[in-house]
Amino acid sequence: MGLLILKKGKEALDLAKLRWLLQNPLSKAVVNELLEKDESGSFRVEELLDSYPERPPSLSWFSFQAANKVLGALREALTIPPERFKQALKHPDIRRTIINALLTINEYGVQTPQRFHAPLMIVWNLTWRCNLRCKHCYQDAGPLRGDKSSNELTLSQKLDAIRQIADSLVPTLSFSGGEPLMDPDFWQIAEEARNQGIYLSLNTNGTLLTDEAAAKLVDLGFAYVGISLDSPTSEFHDEFRGVPGAWQRTVQGIKRLAHSPVSTVLSFTVTKYNYQTLPQVFALAQDLGVDKVMVYNFIPTGRGHYSAQLDLTPEQREEVLKMMYDYSASGGSVCSTAPQLGRVCYEFGHPEYIPLAHTGPGRAQQLAVLAQIIGGCGVGRAYLALQPDGRITPCVYMPDIEIGHITRDTIADVWTRSELLKSLASHQGLKGHCGICEYAAVCGGCRARAYAYFGDLKAPDPGCIKNRDYYWAAVGSSEEFCVQKDVPSLQTGTV
């Protein structure tokens, strides 16, 4: 596999050079010094960030020069003005990210893909309440979920969870649901998260985004809001979401945020009945003034298990991946939960188009080396999920796999001790074509999709064209989801 390249002027930093730069004995000595703690219990690197670009008295000249050079290169790659960069280094979520990265290098070195010292993101399904009745809901949320809503965490437990997330060096928290804005505690919890200096994002259906709600999100410093819209017109969206008039209310919600300081994202769940409208959705997104489009996989879990015929075939998904690639190549900003997008970018010769989480392809072009480190499914490596009742799960699309509970376990302990997470973090032992794929470092397949189809977290992702035989054996010629016993042998390799 070719090496991803980070270009800086005429020089290029490939993965091998990055490993050498970060893992040679001198670099290890610098990292160790930066991770020393002072009398107050703070890391030395925090003193460096406080004084940047000047050298703090307690830090050796060599460590200061090395760390300052890395920070300078990062600022240039991100094209951030010096004063703005200096202020950014004082923000708690940036500090958590930097400390997390240093601890990661100290513990794991540079891996492809990378497992981090602590999750880079926790997605919190805050509530089972929702004002819509979406066919694909992995959470099985809705207006009639009073039976489950009584089991949700109390306000005190939610506030404790926020503080634990901050203490665990997790920089990013994404509220999801259900519909988070229906949780009566949402604004109080969000304010506590803001006070803890956590990077905040929200996934919402947009129907409750009034002028007042939009203004509150801006005031609370939300950095990213994804708003679900599944069609360029109302007919399909309203039927898919189960409530007439939802499309119009969602569009109005998007308009209320689109030109605010919040990065506003149109979230599109792709199915076999709407995938051909994706180019029109891209055009609508531009008309609405959103910052990017997020294309979500449909995963047949939760209530989606009963609507599994909505899922794309591997052939249809390949068309969607090509649409996303073309949109990115034309200058559009797109992300996706389909890890195969990394493989498609490679196959078309432009790995720099691989989107990196909440960044867009514009940044990825200058930080492309990170795609091989961060790229692909983040379960067990960079990402963790929290359920409304406090259960900790590997992924929002694995709501029934409990690996801990926020009221009795710490995030740090679950992350460090869970053998399941360690297994998921590794792309070793994957079955089907996933086990031999040359693009495993930037993909690895969707583990939730594999589990939904085969009940096996290491099974091949049947959403990939390279695993098409597994998909067709699972669904049968009727194209209706039905896991059968006569699927191809789930061993490493191809059928």
Explain this structure to me?
The chain has about 500 residues and is an alpha/beta fold. Helices cover about 40% and strands about 10% of the residues. The chain has a ten-stranded mixed beta sheet with strand order 9-8-7-6-5-4-3-10-11-12, covered by helices on one side. It has a two-stranded antiparallel sheet with strand order 1-2. The protein is globular, with a radius of gyration of 22 Å. The chain starts with 5 loop residues before the first strand and ends in a 20-residue tail after the last helix.
Helical percentage: 40-55%
Number of strands: 12
Low-pLDDT parts are 1-12, 358-366, 477-495
| Subunit arrangement of the protein | single chain
Mean pLDDT: 88
Structural class assignment: alpha/beta
Indicate the proportion of strand residues.
5-15%
Strand arrangement across the biggest beta sheet: 9-8-7-6-5-4-3-10-11-12
The biggest sheet, with number of strands, parallel, antiparallel or mixed sense and barrel status, is:
10 strands, mixed
Number of helices: 21
* Radius of gyration (Å): 22 Å
What spatial form do the alpha-carbon principal axes imply? globular
Ends apart, CA distance between termini? 23 Å
SSE order and pairing:
Elements: E1 6-8, E2 11-13, H1 15-23, H2 25-34, H3 44-51, H4 61-78, H5 82-88, H6 92-108, E3 121-125, H7 146-149, H8 155-167, E4 172-176, H9 186-195, E5 199-204, H10 211-219, E6 224-228, H11 234-241, H12 246-258, E7 263-269, H13 278-288, E8 292-296, H14 314-329, E9 334-336, H15 340-347, H16 361-364, H17 369-374, E10 383-386, E11 391-393, E12 404-405, H18 411-417, H19 419-425, H20 447-454, H21 468-475
